[in-house]
Fold:
Amino acid sequence: MNKFKLNILAFGALTLTFFSCSESVLDVQPMTSILDQNFYKTEADAEMALVGCYDGYQRTTSNGSQSFYITSEILSDNCFGGTGNTDGRGYQALDRFDITQSPSDNNIFNGTWTDYYAGIFRCNTLLQKLPDVASWASTNDSVNTVTRNQIEGETRFLRAIEYFDLVRLFEKVPLITVPTTDNVAQSEPIETYKLIVEDLKFAAANIPVTAYPKANAVTNDGRVTSYAAKAMLARVYMFYTGYYGKDDLGVTKAEVLAGLEDIITDKKFGLVTDFKSLWPAASYIANAADNTLDKTGFAGKGNKETVFAQKFNNTSDYNGMVDGNRWLVMMGMRNTNFSPYGKGWGACTVNPKLVSDFAAGDTRKSASIIDIAGESIASIFDMKDQREYTGYTVKKYTPTCLPDGTSDTGGTKDFQTSQDQDFVVIRYADVLLMAAELGSANALDYYNQVHVRAGFTAKGSVTLADIQDERRFEFAFEGIRYWDLLRQGLSTAASTIAQTQNVLSGKANDVVVISAANITKTRGFMQIPNTQITLSNNVLVQNTGW
Structure:
């Protein structure tokens, strides 16, 4: 079996190799004796292992496997699969919920599966080893207790978000809470969701609000806070209760809403004034005369709207250093540099219906979407190699480049390895709109804060439909739309996503046909990797429709 190393990376140059994983994530073996004999003995060891857990979460994206973000966008009504005209059709299989688009591609998510379970393995190992830290085991000192609980809270949050991605993608997944090599069967989704809720509640209660002050957000917004845990708990609650129509997670709607109100009333976060300043490609201005980018319009990483972000570095290379935003490269215009937009592989071409549905005056439209003809890019765009061209592509998450076409991100400046744009998992706007949807007494005010920022006048009343519509445009291309549709009900998701759209592939007429029946028969879930089913000796059972 092919082996790949999982590295614990400090937020600097420190690298310490702890684990090795085979193709089956359940076959995880220590590379050295460091786990049991001479580690997990001090607070510093625990903190280093926690950094390894963060790295494990980062690697669910940076390792180059099918990313949760791109999957979420392809599945939604925002985007089509796109990519190169002669590429494989795996993205089309996802877009159509139809494996016949790529019949032999039954392992689209194999790397995803192993990356996520490798991350979970790290979290489970640290949680199991926390009692071995000598200074915590030998004293009841309140300061030590707070530190221990904080580390446990951050670790449990990371495990929770990894399981939340898995359970939304595949529904029934092995629920593993200790480091093990056992062949574990799939659990019912309620069991996974209950663990997620327990982990998030612990994180919310035990990570001090002073742990990572917002004043230091530029360096600390990648670390979990109690605010992030409360916001993620709301997202989990709303998806589960919406999709399954049950309220049996061990947390009440009132408790979830109270957590969101805590975030709002504590005033550690806020909306930036100009929506486009949230996104590098939307706010950078190219200066061809001196081959620079004016970045003064960018609000910056860790701005006041960031509640939780997945962080990346520009130090990736082709020799095993994997810590960059790998999926961002897929989002770039196919072989086309047009500063500040950098080239990429043409995934996620934008559905023209979304473009036309933006209301006049909505400032989010030009901040979110690259209009290839409207921005005078069409004459240089690589049409011959682009599949499912619609004239539009994603601006929020696209590589950036200098006017001469070279990467502006530092590192090796290789456009494939040096991408380091954060993935903002939760924004403050989401906190406001989730609180409004859950019935806050301040729902109208929360809604209007987002609505007015987008360029509109305040409304005098707000409905659930208004809030859901606002979410569509506010969070377009942020990996949220598909799950918002699915939690409104499978039939709603299927009928909304289903469509027939004329496109161009390699300059030739093409058509995208998405069937509601395909979405319904899969119940909105993805194909479990065939490799994992085989390695489990068929203990794992494939999802229906695949």
Remarks:
- The domain at 1-65+109-206 is CATH 1.25.40.890 (Serine Threonine Protein Phosphatase 5, Tetratricopeptide repeat).
- The two ends are 26 Å apart (CA to CA).
- The chain is about 40% helix and 10% strand.
